[in-house]
Specification:
By secondary structure, the protein is mainly alpha-helical. The chain has two domains: 7-212, Up-down Bundle (Growth Hormone, Chain: A), CATH 1.20.1250.20; 225-408, MFS general substrate transporter like domains (Growth Hormone, Chain: A). 80% of the residues lie in helices and 0% in strands. Helix 5 (73-94) packs antiparallel against helix 8. The radius of gyration is 21 Å and the shape is globular. The two termini are 37 Å apart. Mean pLDDT is 86; it is low at 420-425.
């Protein structure tokens, strides 16, 4: 039986697993922000708490070595999927309670721990079960179904909430959506219980002491890398403007025109992200791959161009905040411009981590650290974004976002980009 499972075609488990990666991440970072905005929570509290609960995706490399001590990676994947689904069910129940905000945020923090653990185990299965040729072959399927999850979570389900609001009321609409998240994650968990390969038994870590020993060496060697502090500055400042803009944009879309927002309905916001944003993001990501390939890899010129695509499109949101257009196609065009730039420019960050930070003895672990730190680079500015927007208003906030792009251009200009030596790869 085990051999049959391990011999399954990768497309029998990659789509479901990476869909399960994207669903809770977007639910917590984007859909929950729109939900709380509808419930009358301030932008300051929404931005701070829905950003803080994303911390486990930054810290997940810290408990990665300890997963090697128990069961198989497959076990952690399907168990965390089912657990995440069950907690989404509790979130749905909490929305009817008096202290729904504090209770639901706490439950979402637990979801974040479960989902980030899931991601670590899933990455391990992918790396252990597929050779390097297969990894390259199926990486596109990873991205495709992660983005399908983004469309479903940040687009279709938000649209569904908006339509249900009209018939069943605000709370019941979001209870239904949270139950839908619950159903999807539990269904994926039982599917992957049958379909996933094992990902390998524990071989490297036998005790907690050994786990801490491996973790210590991984951390020490990471911070001993040449130019590491430039690299950390690059990760933080490259996303400094993005972290602020992306968190506030859906709140700006939802806010009334008297508050300086666009006054869009929940279903309109879901439509913007699910149609305009998703298509533009995928297109930008694909084109960026060809661009970097034709540019001879990541070099100073290509990095600066990627930085431009990543940061300059925030001007589209500044235009919306100043002009406050009512035409949904104009607003959709602005979303498409920003998401295309996001998909195109984010490639620069991923390639920098892969080619400059990860190479060495602990390539996989150091890549995980770099990826976790990119989330931190997004999370920290997101946490303060609500405070800033509440103090200065949406119009000046998006002008401030444009000012916040300056550090990204400076660090992209000065960060060292040494060519990799063969022994480092």
């Amino acid at each position: 039986m085990t051999n049959n499972v391990n011999n399954r075609h990768p497309l029998q488990w990659i789509p479901s697993t990476w869909f399960a990666m994207g669903l809770p991440f977007v639910a917590l970072s984007t859909a929950s922000a729109i939900m709380y905005k509808n419930f009358g929570i301030s932008d300051t509290n929404i931005a701070f708490w829905t950003s803080l609960i994303m911390l486990p995706w930054t810290l997940k490399p810290l408990w990665g070595p300890f997963l090697e001590m128990f069961k198989t990676k497959k076990y952690f994947v399907y168990i965390t999927q089912i657990l995440t689904g069950c907690i989404f069910g509790l979130v749905a129940i909490s929305l009817h309670l008096d202290h729904f905000f504090s209770i639901s945020i706490t439950l979402m923090a637990i979801i974040a721990i479960s989902a980030s653990t899931h991601d670590t185990a899933a990455d391990g299965i992918y790396l252990n079960e597929l050779d390097t040729t297969e990894q390259a072959k199926y990486v596109g399927w990873q991205g495709a179904f992660y983005n399908v999850a983004k469309i479903v979570s940040g687009g279709l389900l938000v649209y569904l909430a908006g339509e249900l609001e009209k018939k069943y009321g605000l709370v019941n609409a979001w209870v239904t959506v949270m139950l839908f998240y619950s159903f999807l994650m539990i269904l994926l968990g039982f599917y992957n219980m049958k379909m996933l390969p094992s990902g390998g038994e524990s071989k490297h870590v036998g005790t907690i002491k050994e786990g801490f020993g491996v973790l210590k060496e991984v951390i020490v060697t990471f911070f001993q890398k040449k130019n590491i502090w430039y690299g950390l500055a690059f990760i933080v400042f490259y996303r400094f403007a993005e972290g602020q803009a992306i968190k506030i944009t859906p709140l700006f879309f939802k806010a009334s025109r008297l508050e300086g927002g666009l006054g869009l309905s929940t279903s309109q916001i879901g439509l913007l992200y699910g149609v305009f944003g998703a298509a533009a993001f995928v297109l930008g990501s694909i084109i960026a791959g060809y661009f970097v390939s034709k540019s001879g890899g990541l070099n100073r010129k290509s990095l600066l161009i990627l930085c431009c695509f990543f940061n300059l499109p925030f001007a589209a949101y500044a235009y919306l905040a100043i002009a406050l257009p009512v035409n949904l196609y104009i607003i959709g065009a602005a979303v498409a411009i920003e998401y295309f730039g996001y998909g195109f420019g984010f490639v620069g960050l991923i390639l920098y981590i892969m080619q400059q930070m990860a190479p060495g003895k602990y390539k996989m672990a150091h890549y995980a650290f770099g990826s976790g730190l990119t989330n931190l680079g997004f999370m920290l500015p997101s946490m303060i974004s609500g405070f800033v927007s509440d103090r200065i208003g949406y119009q000046y906030f998006f002008i401030w976002v444009l000012v916040s792009t300056i550090p990204a251009f400076i660090i992209s200009w000065i960060v060292p980009l040494p060519k990799l030596q063969q022994e480092d790869i």
